[in-house]
Design goal:
Helices cover 42% and strands 13% of the residues. The chain is of the alpha/beta class and 277 residues long. It has a single domain, classed as 3-Layer(aba) Sandwich (Rossmann fold). It has a seven-stranded parallel sheet, sandwiched between helices. α3 links the parallel β2 and β3. The chain is globular. 38% of the residues are buried.
């Protein structure tokens, strides 16, 4: 007769090692001390929050943006004791993304993190939405993101490590009215994220995305001011409110830090639960 299973058998040597690794966990894995980051469009909107989040965790920040730098983000970053370098740059111009990466390496001494947050959204009814809206959105939201990631990944592969965080959207998964190009480019960002993850993981480079929901920023002022539109949106969000840019800061630090070293090709939705309804 078979002997009964002994559920009190000593664990294997491999199993004995696992608890030790867990017991040694430290919040230092969330630290970005000494890291160098590029945040495209990092001096406006959500990009400002991303720049401040990285600086608060210890990273120096390089911000290429087509918008003139007003010094607000610079003061916030340096207030955390980190370096801030701004570069006025149109990432849709040939060669500029590569120049941005080269200048970041020159100014900050390297590149460890890329946050692709620059983006635009032009609105028009389907009948009126043509190439005059489509082309610039594809150029900024998708092609420029690809080109700077291409240049940044070469640096990261050379040093055998890095983090790329692309900014997607709820509209990576939904249709959305009046901007087929926005939905198309943000869906493209998700596919691009997964494709880059698949090839760069062996070089210890993680490529992930954040998909924000409805956030209270300057770009959504008109929608939030429309009582009917605002009500419809808030009623669809289980959290019962618009997101605040600060709600994205922890998600970014996680994906930019070694805490997420085994997270790759993931799209982290930060939407207050919008997609569940």
């Amino acid at each position: 007769m078979d002997e009964p299973l002994d559920h009190q058998q000593p664990p294997t040597a491999q199993a004995e090692q696992a608890p030790g690794a867990v017991d040694a966990f430290s919040l230092e894995v969330f630290s970005l001390a000494g890291k160098r980051a590029i945040v495209t469009g990092g001096n406006t909107g959500l990009g400002h929050a991303f720049s401040v989040a990285l600086a608060s965790a210890g990273a120096d920040v390089f911000v290429p943006s087509i918008a003139k730098d007003d010094g607000v983000t610079a003061r916030a970053v340096t207030g955390h004791g980190r370096r801030y370098v701004a570069m006025q740059a149109d990432l849709t111009r040939p060669g500029v993304p590569k120049q941005v990466v080269s200048r970041c390496v020159e100014e900050l001494g390297g590149l460890d993190i890329l946050v692709n947050s620059a983006g635009i959204c032009l609105l028009a009814d389907v009948a009126d939405f043509d190439r005059t809206q489509w082309d610039p959105m594809v150029a900024v939201n998708l092609t420029a993101a690809f080109e700077i990631a291409h240049a940044a990944s070469a640096e990261m592969v050379r040093q055998e490590g890095g983090k790329i965080v692309n900014i997607a959207s709820l509209f990576s998964f939904l249709g959305g009215q009046q901007s087929p190009a926005y939905a198309a480019t943000k869906a493209g960002i998700v596919g691009f994220t997964k494709a880059y993850c698949d090839e760069l993981a062996r070089h210890h480079v993680q490529v992930n995305a954040i998909a924000p929901g409805y956030f209270a920023t300057e770009i959504t002022t008109a929608t939030r001011s429309d009582l009917d539109a605002n009500r419809r949106i808030v009623e669809h969000i289980p959290a019962g409110r618009w997101g605040d840019p600060a709600d994205l800061m922890g998600a970014l630090v996680f994906l930019a830090s070694s805490a997420s070293d085994y997270v790759n090709g993931h799209v982290l939705v930060v939407d207050g639960g919008y997609l569940v309804r």
